């Protein structure tokens, strides 16, 4: 049972109705989850790129900071520094700044985004310097699959928070929040503003909360009553949304469908695309048992000096050959036939039979 709450418009949306197996939510209408498609379109991050991995240790992090940022932090704790120090020590350059100062500022700015927004940890104010090692050459930085790295972190945090004793969650919670708003429109605030890209920017504007339930009991009731018919499996098919998505983001849809492990340094999580095929407009068969990564979840960055590319070489090879791991896909004839009959309840089967006859 998912223990955390999804915060929609600063209101607590209980997801007690969603059991969680692997990294997917179980609703009365089927399984769903945040996918590579969501992170690609919501955040605008590259998905089809090289794995974000490498060394997470250094013999002297101070030297690394000096070479890449200029100043050296007074306090480096386990390879982590305070983001407040970044803001205070690396101010925005002016028009007369040298190219070197601009580059160093860009590194500090990206480092703060990674630690404070995209892949935040429970501290909320610390960022690991392993990310700085990925910002040496911006050309190489732009070829990394930052989208899959962000999703890997969020998956791990979502899995960890299902345990009853967990009270905090890290990762890109704005992505989780925005995903819920797009897929649960009956629980979403009203925004009278055109869609913009990346799609997560839609929530940067003022919103109306009229008609949105505030009590936990009413929200649970709405989820039970309306999620089956009103859950949006493919919200990005809306023409108003489709028109704002840049052309290049729609050129390789296959990368969204791959069922492969996602690797981010010490973290490995499975992209269970075969269990949420309805989110890609495909018919859902009865899925095979989900991948179990219990042993992988025990691995963390505390294993210092680990050669992560070698440690996860098998999973990284799968990612590099990800197009060999696309589930069988079948387009439904009509929306009512989005799942094979064996997957649904008896009442839903009768509805499908009526649809077939029609």
Characterize this entry briefly.
By secondary structure, the protein is α+β, with helices and mostly antiparallel strands. It is built from 14 helices and 9 strands. The protein has a 3-stranded antiparallel sheet with strand order 3-4-5, with no helix packed on it. The chain has a two-stranded antiparallel sheet with strand order 1-2. A two-stranded antiparallel sheet has the order 6-7.
Query: What share of the residues does DSSP label as strand, in percent?
Result: 5-15%
Q: Poorly predicted ranges (pLDDT <50, ≥5 residues)?
A: 1-19
**What is the typical, i.e. mean, pLDDT?**
87
- Characterize the biggest β-sheet: 3 strands, antiparallel
Strand arrangement, major sheet: 3-4-5
Order of helices and strands: EEEEEHHEHHEHHHHHHEEHHHH
What overall form do the CA principal axes indicate?
Answer: globular
Q: Quickly count the helices.
A: 14
Q: Roughly what percent helix?
A: 25-40%
Distance between the termini: 38 Å
Radius of gyration: 22 Å
The computed structural class is alpha+beta
Strands, total number: 9
How would you portray this structure in words?
This is Aminotransferase-like plant mobile domain-containing protein. By secondary structure, the protein is an alpha+beta fold. It has 14 helices and nine strands. Strand 8 and strand 9 form a beta hairpin. The protein is globular, with a radius of gyration of 22 Å. The chain starts with a strand and ends with a helix.
